[in-house]
Amino acid sequence: MKIAIYGKGGIGKSTISANLSAALAKAGKKVLQIGCDPKHDSTRLLLGGKRIMTALDYMKNTPVGLQRLDRVLHVGYKGIVCAEAGGPEPGVGCAGRGILSTFALFERLGLDMNTFDVVVYDVLGDVVCGGFAVPLRQGFADTVYVVTSEEFMSIYAANNILKGVKNFDQGGHRLAGLILNSRGTHENRHPVKRFAQNVKLPVKQTVPRSELFRKAEMMEKTVVEAFPDSTEARAFHDLARDVLENHTFYPARFLNEDVLEQLILQDSPPQAQTDAENRVPSKAPGINEKSPEKKFKVKSSDKKSVFLSKSLLTREPLHGCAFSGALATTTQIKDTVTVAHGPRSCTNIACQAILSAGFRLFTRKKILLENQIAPAVISSDMDESVVIYGGKDNLVKTLEQAMEQNPKAVFLVTTCPSGVIGDDPVAAIHEIRQKYPQIPVIAVTSDGNLRGDYMQGVLNACMEGAGALMDKTVTPKSHCVNILAEKNIAFNAESNFNTIADILKEMNIDINCRFVRNTSVEQLKGFLKAPLNLPAYTDYFGRLMADFIDERLGIPTAKQPFPVGFSESVAWVREIADFFHESMAGERVIDTHRRHYETMIKTYGHTLKGRRLMILTYMHNVDWIVEAAFDLGMEVIKVCILNFSQDNLFITRYPERFEVETNYDPAKRDKDLERLKPDLLLGNYTPKNLPYPLHVDIIPMCPDVGFYGGLAFAHRWATLIKAPVTEGWKNDAL
Amino acid sequence: MMPSDNSNIIPDSFTGAIMAIEGIRDAAVLLNGPTGCKFYHGAISENQMPRTDFIDPLYYSEEFYFGQPRVPVTYLDDYDYVFGATDKLEKILPVVAKKGQGLIGVINSPGAALIGDDLLRFIKNANLPVPCIAVENTGFSQPLAWGFQNTVKEVLTRIAPLESPREKAGVNLMGVSIFHHHWQGNIAELTTLLQACGIRVNTTVCAGCTLAELKNINLARLNVVVHAEYANTLMPFMAERFNMDSFIPPDGAPVGFQATESWISGVCEILDVSPAPALELIKNGRQKSHEALNRFNALTGLPKGATFGVEGDASMALPLVTWLYEYLGMVPVSVRVNRGDAQSTHNLKLFLQKIDCAGAWQAHMAHEIPDVVFGSGAVIARLRVSGHPFTGIELSLPAGTYQHVIPKAYMGSQGALYLIERIINGLAGC
Asked: Where is the Nitrogenase/oxidoreductase component domain (chain B) (predicted)?
């Protein structure tokens, strides 16, 4: 059971929530209370006055990879598990966004709400933005109580909350009733009663104004704990009983403002009441008895691996956004449409990156890939009114447009503005599914960069998007493979795939599915047919993909990535051939290519022999080029590895044969050049202002794969070395 | 089955706002937002108006620049959205101020606009030696031109003095941005025509101009509009703030001989100078054009009867369609305009009705692929997927990968000749 307690700020929600939790715990229930208020004092009385680390502070100060659930969950009175979302200082940031981030954290760290008998959400205010509405979303609160006092503004807020509840009231009602937190015995309760009658809700409990609350607070306890025999405590035990036994839920009805004003302000004067409710027991038990802090224990078996991008894991600045990464990935699946929920600029920016890769592919390789030239994307074109009033209707309309294309699946990716205002894509999907049950609609976690960087978006789109299409009942097939972790922004991704497909064909092996590039819903459905995955890269992304598929789907992944250069190709062919018992075919392939390779080495070796090579690159694997250089008789003198957002693991087969410096400081370059005097400097960009003239050339971030990947440069270097060291045009700078 | 066009893959007012400030040579945008909003704009700005001679990301590896020389960013993340970007804003402002810019425009990304950080407070507290403006909300999904003009107004309000100049001369070119394809070539061609008539170009507002030029914006006698969409709200602003008149070309932008003649004649009439020298230049262009077309037509009968499609702003589409039809005898099969100038749009529809081509209005090019397609690189590439041969002439961004070393123009006399060259060679199958 999950209960949301809503009410205007300062109305006493936290006191009511904490006492309700205490009463529920006393009734033997396992309770989790989550405070969703930036002032983070919801659970204070359950924890003996202790202020706990809020989820948002914890997130801010702890790298994602080190975050643990038990640091934000604390055990209080009668085993109640307590958490506080926290939030920014008044006047800065966005507290509603904070609630969304907190729930995302809980989800990521594997908090299973279903292991509790009752979850109590103590939520600020009158549903001011999407963030505060999180507990109303499907899957969170199934019961809603609204706290009000007799004051107009409090009832006004309650009315607004009912509006909010109505917006989220799909597939059943969740309102259990009102709780009147009385401001005093002399207050006129008629407005509340009339409000309740008009919105057709029962007043489930009246909590009297009482000095006992102040006294209990002084003792840093709830009334239920501090004054267990009091009338006030009994009120909460009654409320707890109602919570547990209630089966009647009401639709959310609200009054328009004129009616509400008339109803409350034109009321009869308050009537005198007896003060019987204010009796105080002579002695309160347990004063100042602070129990030692208990930590919430998470069963390790409950935790699934979390697949995070390198930047997210190490709290580096995020490069690009998850929205863009997700869009670049889902648009690789033919026969699908991706709905981008956000302003037009977000879709444009993300699509320009896709188009740019498509243009380069066409210019350099003369391959026109429809997915990258005309990505099937529809933007919801979020405008000012959507930003203010929420975008569900707008999103449903855009999803309908996508459905009208009759695709095989629709993906939904969301932007920062959508995430900040707390739009709930699940609610929109729920609505559209009822109208178009035959077409799968799959949301990919993104919210712009709120849920991570570009790589995280790619990961999420692979795992949640493409992964959701897989059919687990397919019959396995032999002699076929899946391809993992191709780079959609690489201009040679398609030609590299073709090279690999050709080599595999020579060994009688087919491609089953490309995960996820230039693929189709049918291919993805049949993903589980293949007995082996081949990673295009074993960089951070490639490794993560392999781990994900191994853990969740049980298909092994080859150790070696698409090979670049001769040795890698030999080892790769042998690994694949061994797996499929095609060793003879594999050796035939190797022999054929070896003869051609040796011929090429002879052709270029005499020009390049003895030349000194230095490499300055973002790439973390340069063996393909080092191998070619050594085979050509060149001398590799130093390899300098720059920090790169997408990888962190430098590897080489030649550990002792040249100097290596990782995390290279570019400021050292000139000194190294002066000291080592290379004949040729290779890098990913042509450097400027070198200390002396020397030959420089470019190596691609994503080299061409296959037996000749490294040697492909031999011809270029042999020619380059004959060119003048400094070209004349370089003297023509302004 | 899939969406047959990229009609919703177009930039909006956010990009327009950034391009307005990046269009000033000695000003810089400081983006308060995530890097996802930075990379595209940093690349476009530097590509459209190169200001550095080097692209190695290592040279821009300091914090906030992320390997690009333009559009430094506060790289907001989830935590900043919750807690505000105070620390980063306090840190980035002095870093950018040290780069020697004359103006910094702090612009919120769409997401940052929602958290309500008080940019003006940060700017004031930073006490920088450089003037700054704050654009807290560039609009959501509004037209690019809308964001562009609003930001131009912010800039002019901040830097251009209100006092009346003693003597006025020349014109300001208005309604063109660095986001326009071939903007430099077009401005050069229009400047040549104006100068031929003795009209000095005071500045081109936020398209390759300097702050000093903008400060003297009211020295000009007239604002001359190029693309009406990019000046429709600027004109009343200029009238109100600087008491300046503006000339709106009735036939749209100066694309094709006829619209160019109309454009220069209109300007000269207001300034009371003779358009004859410019018309002479255009006449020379017409003669060259005739020479080329005469030979081509004699052998092929073309370009008459060749079909064409146009996708772009109304102010460009109107004169282009009119010229291609009336001057070259080509027939429109698709004319797609997205939220362009209302008057040009209206006139364009009337024109299509008049020539019995009303069906071409907003028609999908994929349904009948024209012989010649005018549009962005994306429009052209998308049609290439069909495998059907046609000639694509890029008139707007995104452009393909072709590097233009010699500045091209599609406006003015030289622009008309360039288009004719491309059409003739395209139709000839070259």
From this structure: 14-427
Give the pLDDT of residue A293. Answer: 55
Judge whether residue A302 has pLDDT over 60.
Answer: no
Alpha-carbon distance B118 to nearest alpha carbon in chain A (angstroms): 8
Option in A98, A101, A373 nearest B382 (CB): A373
Other C-beta atoms closer than 10 Å to the C-beta of A521 total 17
Rounded CA separation B276/B282 (Å): 10
- Gap from A345 CA to chain B (nearest CA, Å): 5
All domains of chain A in start order, with CATH = 2-269 (3.40.50.300), 304-555 (3.40.50.1980), 602-732 (3.40.50.1980)
Report ipTM (2 d.p.).
0.95
The pairing of strands A74-75 and A294-295 is antiparallel
Does B84 contact A93 at a Cβ distance shorter than 8 Å?
yes
All structural domains of chain B, each given as residue ranges with its CATH number in brackets, are 13-159 (3.40.50.1980), 171-278 (3.40.50.1980), 284-427 (3.40.50.1980)
Are B78 and A407 an interchain contact pair (Cβ–Cβ within 8 Å)?
Answer: no
8 Å CB contact between A199 and A159: yes
Model pLDDT for residues A366-396, shown as the tens digit of each residue: 888 889 999 999 999 999 888 777 788 899 9
| Cβ neighbours of A420 in B, within 8 Å | 81, 111, 114-115
Whether A279 shows a pLDDT value over 60: the answer reads no
Searching chain B, which residue's CA lies closest to the CA of residue A100? B82
pLDDT value of residue B82: 85
Touching B: A residues 39-98, CB under 8 Å: 56, 59-60, 87-89, 92-95, 97-98
**Cα dist. A135→A156, A261, B12 in Å?**
20, 28, 34
Q: What is the distance between the alpha carbons of residues B370 and A454, in angstroms, rounded to a whole number?
A: 38
Q: Flag whether residue A128 sits within 8 Å of chain B, measured between CB atoms.
A: no
- The encoded tokens of residue A421 equal 């205002």
Residue pLDDT, tens place only, B374-402: 999 999 999 998 889 999 999 999 999 89
Q: What percent of chain B has pLDDT over 70?
A: 96
The answer to whether B292 and B355 have CB atoms below 8 angstroms apart is no
Residue with tokens 């997915």: A371
By annotation, the residues of A acting in catalysis are 8, 13, 39, 126
- Asked if B81's CB is within 8 angstroms of A420's CB, the reply is yes
Cβ pair B83:A92 closer than 8 A? yes
Which stretches of A547-597 are assigned E, i.e. beta strand?
none
Model pLDDT for residues B163-222, shown as the tens digit of each residue: 777 788 899 999 999 999 999 999 999 999 999 999 999 999 999 999 999 999 999 999
| B82 with A374: Cβ contact below 8 A | no
The closest of B274, B269, B265, B12 to B144, measured between CA atoms, is B12
Using CA atoms, how far apart are residues B189 and B248, in angstroms rounded to an integer?
18
Query: What is the distance between the alpha carbons of residues A713 and A686, in angstroms, rounded to a whole number?
Result: 16
For residue A305, is pLDDT > 70? no
Identify the CA nearest to B321 among candidates B338, B337, B342, B341. B337
Question: Is the pLDDT confidence value at A61 over 90?
Answer: no
Tell whether A330 is within 8 A of chain B (Cβ).
no
Chain B within 8 Å of A449 (Cβ-Cβ)?
yes
Which amino acid is located at B368 in the chain?
Answer: E
pLDDT at position A270 over 70: no
Enumerate the β-bridge partners of residue A443.
A412
Q: Confirm or reject contact between B413 and chain A (CB < 8 A).
A: no
Which residues on chain B are in Cβ contact (under 8 Å) with A342?
110
pTM score, whole prediction: 0.85
Q: How many CB atoms lie within 10 A of CB A380?
A: 30
Q: Chain A closest CA to B19's CA: distance in Å?
A: 13
Q: Is B398's CB within 8 Å of A355's CB?
A: yes
Q: Which two tokens stand for residue B396?
A: 């707007």
